[in-house]
């Protein structure tokens, strides 16, 4: 009997080790690679999920969600107040106007007018940042980051764009809702970003 227990323990240990090794591997979607971890304002985050955004038959971008704690539901993501990141990898050229239109449509589809009004200053600051980026090109990487200390920040190809935007988690959750809200921009992508999409 002790031998059987030892074998079971060894098998369990091997399974756990393999699981950790697999979880630590970079994930490549199309031409974009998502590392298993990311650092946002000094906090180490884990890749929660990643997927492909398509529109009609076109591949537009990939998206990866990094969180402090794993989440299988959008409500679990929204409830967190630790650092977070959404990383977009562009698979085609997208005009600034199209990007901002998508941002506006995603927010309006998932946010009640009163809540949108409450964070209107932050939303306008975010639009202003996107205008300063201008048109984005194939291969560009855009990060939408959040930390409790700095608020929402935007990076283009690992370089900060403008100043951090205040508005707390409410503003960042409005951004997250574009991909994770009840009326998300792409249901298939939403499932991939959450653990249930694995």
UniProtKB/TrEMBL annotation:
Signal peptide as annotated in the record: 1-23
An annotated Gene Ontology molecular function: intramolecular lyase activity
Domain of life of the organism encoding this protein: Bacteria
Chalcone isomerase domain segment(s): 28-194
InterPro entries with a match to the protein in the record: Chalcone_isomerase, Chalcone_isomerase_3-sand, Chalcone_isomerase_sf
Membrane-crossing segments per the record: none
UniProt keyword Signal present: yes
UniProt KW keywords: Signal
UniProt entry tagged with the keyword Signal: yes
Record-linked Pfam families: Chalcone_3
UniProt protein name: Chalcone isomerase domain-containing protein
Organism: Sutterella wadsworthensis 2_1_59BFAA
Organism placement in taxonomy: Bacteria, Pseudomonadati, Pseudomonadota, Betaproteobacteria, Burkholderiales
């Amino acid at each position: 009997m002790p031998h059987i227990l030892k074998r079971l323990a060894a098998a369990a240990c091997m399974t756990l080790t393999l699981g950790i090794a697999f979880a630590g591997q970079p994930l490549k979607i199309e031409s974009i690679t998502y590392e298993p971890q990311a650092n946002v304002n000094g906090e180490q985050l884990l890749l929660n999920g990643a997927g492909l955004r398509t529109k009609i038959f076109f591949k537009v971008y990939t998206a990866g969600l990094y969180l402090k704690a794993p989440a299988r539901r959008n409500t679990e993501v929204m409830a967190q107040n630790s650092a977070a990141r959404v990383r977009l990898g562009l698979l085609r050229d997208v005009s600034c106007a199209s990007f901002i239109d998508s941002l506006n449509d995603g927010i309006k589809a998932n946010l009640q007018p009163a809540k949108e009004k409450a964070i209107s200053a932050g939303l306008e600051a975010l639009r202003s940042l996107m205008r300063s980026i201008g048109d984005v090109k194939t291969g560009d990487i855009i990060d939408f980051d959040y930390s409790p200390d700095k608020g929402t920040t935007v990076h283009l190809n690992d370089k900060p764009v403008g100043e951090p935007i205040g508005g707390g988690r409410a503003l960042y959750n409005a951004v997250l809702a574009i991909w994770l809200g009840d009326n998300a921009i792409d249901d298939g992508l939403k499932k991939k970003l959450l653990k249930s999409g694995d």
